[in-house]
């Protein structure tokens, strides 16, 4: 009796053709969404775009959680797949932002998503390549976060302010403090507080626990860079008003 060997998923190729297409779509998708809503100038169209994109993110995430629970069991699901990783939380925030257009979800999605999730798109923690399910699930989730932040900024014309930066950084540390006992109780590694992720990111330096301090510095630096164009744009606008 011969057993049929199971086919192995194709390996992920960093900066391969599929990866490059994904990075292009990360910018192209929110740009297209923004053009549609700004040209339509219709609340109905804007609402439809937001709801459809939120539904896509929600279905993708629920399917992923269900798949992990069924294939790996409840114990592994609790330890590894609860929506307590940064990107999982950012997906939920993105869905809430699209459906409510509320201020706080926007601020956190803007800073957490653009600073953290962008890096996860460029240097993903992924082994399966196109066209494996995990490839699609991973990038729909991560591209969706960045696309939501960009769409809200350029399509919905929302903007962060300096207090948004401060809140995003403070809430990030509150989240880390809240997840520390969870990791101890579940023997988990949410927010990568106990062990560094396996990634090709050039920003991940040092060993535990020193890389956590370094990530704090990086987060604040990236948040400042993300706020800089908004700050400069407001200063330029104020200068034009004064000149007139």
Please characterize this protein's 3D structure.
The chain is an all-alpha fold and 244 residues long. The chain has one domain (17-243). It contains seven helices and no strands. The longest helix has 39 residues, at 43-81. It is globular.
Summarize the structure.
With 244 residues, the protein is mainly α. The protein is built from 7 helices and no strands.
Q: What labels would you give this structure?
A:
single chain; 0% strand; 244 residues; globular; 73% helix; mainly alpha
Please describe the topology of this protein:
Layout: H1 17-40, H2 43-81, H3 86-100, H4 103-122, H5 133-154, H6 162-186, H7 210-243
Helix pairs in contact: 1-2, 1-5, 2-3, 2-5, 3-4, 3-5, 4-5, 4-6, 4-7, 6-7
Largest sheet: none
Mean pLDDT: 91
Shape: globular
Helix and strand composition category: mainly alpha
**Topology pattern, helix = H, strand = E:** HHHHHHH
Topology, number of strands:
0
- The termini sit apart by 86 Å
Radius of gyration: 20 Å
Helix % is over 70%
Low-confidence stretches: none
In terms of DSSP E residues, the strand content is under 5%
- Count of alpha and pi helical runs: 7
Tally of structural domains: 1
């Amino acid at each position: 009796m011969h057993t049929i060997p199971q086919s192995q998923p194709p390996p992920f190729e960093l900066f391969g053709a599929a990866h490059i297409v994904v990075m292009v779509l990360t910018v192209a998708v929110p740009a297209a969404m923004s053009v549609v809503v700004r040209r339509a100038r219709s609340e109905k169209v804007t609402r439809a775009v937001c709801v459809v994109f939120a539904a896509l993110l929600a279905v993708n995430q629920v399917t992923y959680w269900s798949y992990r629970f069924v294939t790996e069991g409840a114990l592994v699901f609790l330890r590894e797949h609860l929506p307590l990783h940064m990107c999982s939380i950012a997906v939920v925030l993105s869905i809430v932002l699209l459906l409510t257009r509320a201020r706080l979800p926007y601020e956190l999605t803007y800073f957490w998503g653009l600073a953290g999730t962008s890096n996860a798109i460029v240097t993903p923690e992924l082994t399966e390549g196109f066209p494996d399910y995990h490839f699609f699930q991973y990038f729909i989730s991560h591209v969706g976060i960045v696309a939501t932040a960009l769409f809200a900024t350029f399509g919905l014309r929302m903007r962060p302010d300096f207090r948004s930066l401060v809140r995003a950084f403070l809430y990030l540390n509150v989240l880390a403090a809240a997840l520390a006992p969870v990791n101890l109780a579940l023997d988990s590694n949410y927010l990568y507080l106990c062990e560094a992720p396996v990634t090709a990111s050039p920003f991940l330096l040092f060993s535990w626990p020193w890389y956590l301090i370094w990530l704090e510095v990086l987060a604040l630096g990236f948040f400042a860079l993300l706020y800089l164009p908004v700050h400069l744009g407001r200063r330029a606008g104020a200068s034009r008003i004064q000149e007139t």
